[in-house]
């Protein structure tokens, strides 16, 4: 898994195909503070996103996924290189989504990050002006 061995991995899985078989070259790993996605065989691409940068997490389970015990976790991210991404066709998707969601909240609390920090800079300027105007 390349550079992922440095972080202690809490969860890992592969993107799966029909019938839940892990015959793909997409691997997912989760550490205490980062999510890693590795894709490819001949040419490997390794992406990571810091958990505190994930804004929203949702679960999608199409009929064929439910029949195979799979699901796709959709993540909305403030990370410039990853943006929005999906953790596709994984086993125990509901449990993984809950674990990821809780870990994201824990990291955001630990780093004292609120969603306001990802808002437009212009909005913050107006908020400051309104605060001074209330005297």
From TrEMBL:
Residues 23-98 form the YdbS-like PH domain. It comes from the Bacteria. This is PH domain-containing protein. It comes from Coprococcus hominis.
């Amino acid at each position: 898994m390349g550079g992922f061995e440095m972080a202690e991995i809490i969860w890992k899985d592969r993107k799966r195909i029909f019938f839940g078989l892990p015959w793909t070259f997409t691997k997912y790993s989760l550490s205490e503070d980062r999510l890693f996605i590795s894709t490819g065989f001949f040419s490997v691409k390794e992406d990571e996103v810091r958990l505190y940068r994930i804004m929203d997490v949702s679960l999608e389970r199409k009929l064929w996924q439910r029949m195979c015990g799979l699901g796709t976790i959709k993540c909305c991210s403030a990370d410039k290189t990853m943006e929005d991404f999906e953790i596709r066709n994984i086993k125990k998707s509901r449990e993984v989504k809950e674990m990821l969601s809780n870990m994201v909240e824990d990291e955001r609390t630990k780093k004292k990050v609120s969603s306001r920090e990802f808002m437009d800079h212009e909005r913050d300027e107006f908020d400051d002006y309104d605060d001074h105007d209330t005297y």
